[in-house]
Design brief:
Order of helices and strands: HEEEEEEE
Largest sheet: 7 strands, antiparallel
Distance between the termini: 60 Å
Length: 115
Amino acid sequence: MKRIGLTLFLICFGLVLAGQTNQTAPTRKTVVGMYHINKVHGSEDGGMVMRGMDFSYHSSAHDSMISCRGECELEVGKMLLQAGEVDFHTKTGTAEARENVRIKVLPVGGGTRMP
């Protein structure tokens, strides 16, 4: 009797676990923003588009950073950076990329591909 009850419990537990599988694929998110760089002879403003699976934003008095994790793309001007992870510093315009990094120069007139 105990064996039948345990078997029935294991079958039901297996069915519950099978029903909890994620049927929808994760979606990529898009962040559209600006950066501002202070230079010796003036400053420069620009736009950027970042796509990826997960984002976080960090800000301090000296720096602001957008972090992307998972299938990241950073498009700035005529350049597309693809990597597994990207940290973009908005006050300097500097990007740090990790994991399978690729850089592509976009065609003239291509510009930023809006989402």
